[in-house]
Design a protein that fits this description.
With about 375 residues, the chain is mainly β. The chain folds into two domains: about 180 residues, Acid Proteases (Cathepsin D, subunit A, domain 1, Beta Barrel); about 160 residues, Acid Proteases (Cathepsin D, subunit A, domain 1, Beta Barrel), CATH 2.40.70. It is built from seven helices and 29 strands. Strand 3 and strand 4 form a beta hairpin. The N terminus is likely disordered.
Length: about 375
Amino acid sequence: MRLFRIIIPLILTTTNAFVPTVMRGMFALSPLSATDDDKNLNINETQKLSTIRAPIKYIGPYPCLALRFPKLATKSMEKNNTGISLDFVMDTAANTNTINAQVAAELSLPNVGKAPGGVGAGGVIEGGDTFMLGDCELEGLPAEDKFTFMSDLTASALPVASPASAGLLSLTFFNCFEGGVEFCWGKAEGNEMVIPPSISFYGPENSDTNPAEGMSRVPIKSIPVTLLPSITVRVNGVEMPALLDTGSPITVMNTQAASEAGVEAFNLDQPSKSNNPFVTFTNNLKVTKAISDGNIMQLAGANAVINLLKSNSKVDVSIIGDDGPISFGAGNIFVGDLPGLAALNGLGVDAPPALILGMDVLRTKTKMLYRGQQNEVFFEN
């Protein structure tokens, strides 16, 4: 997967400032209580009794679920011509569903409350209005199989909604399913997709099937306050905590982790300061080339631009499970200190070794079964 230049406001949020493919929101937005799952989503009775599978679509590198809202319509739609389909990025490292504020306005969604402010990768973010989306169906199913998948779905217009999609679905969504959620990222052979991307939802009464069969269990440790999922990874033989993040297309480790794991990253020479416009132009040209070559990604933090530097060589990544390490092979990752992560139990600039485990690593396995209620995740061996 090739990523290009990124200029990202606050939380690693999609922008089309310079190139089409960029990084989107990854992190905690506000505290999540153990009861918020039931407050925000009502699971349809049909869903409790069966396994439900729907297609995953990719918008750039972001895995998305399409939901159809049969009772919604835009202002320009003809009377009685209702029904809107919206794409949502699936993000296991966010704890608040979000909706793009412009989408909420166009659909005239009712305001049902206010979401508190929180923290993003680049620092503190403001809260926002919470809107009622209402009943939804899974898009992509045959007409005869459509049903009300969920009711009373809500989402908040926080400053992290991505132009690449209508918003994101968070742990509030995924933790509703007692039997877990299976992400099948898809498998390609050459130009042919031999296993199409899909997502399966398992209710509590799926005793006839065991989706975790043949997979290795990895315990999840919830980060205090935010309840975001943390697992243990091994990078070049060094173990460290990692945020499990399907909303990030890349894996990022802090400088302390890179130092201990012996990961060397692209050397970004600090440009010399000068009032000479030709020197300034030369400095900017060097940085621009490094960005276009994929050696630098940039995050617009609260006070300054943060550079994420690509590792000079591929690094070995494993996830520590009950039965030992699960190898995810070797690949390039990025190094950088994200100040907003200081709130996530010490994942900030002065933190011990820590890592954001993104889709570039996760997609090396075809499937992942996430069980939030049981604090566990399963991967293929």
